Here is the input.
Amino acid sequence: MAPQLRTLEAQEWDTWYRTLERAFGGPPTPPEARELWEGLTEHDRSIGVWDGDACVGTAGAFSLRLSVPGAALVDTAGVTMVSVAATHRRQGLMTAMMRRQLDDVHERGEPLAALVASEPGIYGRFGYGMATQQLSATIDTARVRLEVPAGPGTDGVHLRYADPLSALPACEAVYADQPAGRPGMPARAPGWERLAVLAPQGGGHDGGSPLQCVVAERDGATVGYARFHNTPQWDLSGARGTIVLRDLEARDPAAYAALWHFLFGIDLTSALVAQNRPADDAWQHLVSDIRRCERQLRDGLFVRLVDVGAALEARTYRAPVDVVLEVEDSFCPWNEGRWRLAGDQGGASCTRTRAAADVTLSVRALASAYLGGVPLTALARAGRAGELTGGTLERASLAFGNEAAPWLPHSF
Here is the structure.
């Protein structure tokens, strides 16, 4: 009998999740994190592929609201927990799950789907395009200074250690302010905030401390926070510990700079590792020697426009735009064809049209440009977009851009 694909039943979750764990390898998920993931699982949005009594494929989605240019929050299917058992590779199970999932997202009326790819090469054929990048850095804090300029509010910031769990409500209120200013950030629904204080899989970071939290306060109100691990190390010359930053958010530049200055100056440490920060993170303009910060960029969030018209209408545009896009989308053919996009900073409309196309591109390329982090002109230079009417591509590229680099602060 061929494997069967069906919606997950609550009592099947353990078997389904063990299939996922086996596919990704490594130690089992710690009990507290496992309990949280089970509670967050939306069973009616989760798919299992069953070969007899054996689960051989998994895929799920969370109902997210993702920030897009213009500070809007757009209903988004957060695709997650995708796996195929090694015994059942190359049998079309992944394609079947993606087909079922995108049909379901379309029926629900969600304009977007998004995911963090374990293997980016898999998802382009399903219309997902890389829309954000994340910056990692290993900073030599023994040699690099952080120079904090004087300015309004600089002297009014007070830092204190706080219990990560007790401080969670105040920190989460700071986080809730951030998505409006940076596309790609999800608004966290109740329950999701606990992910921020759970230890990484397997415990702390390479033998480091339990999660530590420092909050920045002004006039008794929390205006920022940093959560991190402290990994001690000693050699014949003395202490060479490492601070591993988990996350840092602040409501204003003074609180932001105060938190980074604190991290640079922790005793008995000589390195600061930041593993996922925005590509345009401001600390890069505060350091004395950027070369000793060992920066790297990698892919972050992959986006899929499930409804081209609704998705393009959901965001605003940095400059006025009036362009006819001819979109290729063989996997979701309801998106195929020509769309007239007209918009500016106040809003947009995107409707079907028979007018001649100005720009041609795949839905994958459109998804990469959607959050404003990948210029349409760059996609054109890569052969991913074509201009049919002179000047339209450059104008559209300017309109799609965004002042802040899009960024996903955590996976899901």
About this structure: The radius of gyration is 23 Å. Residues 93-108 form the longest helix (16 residues). The chain has nine helices and 22 strands.
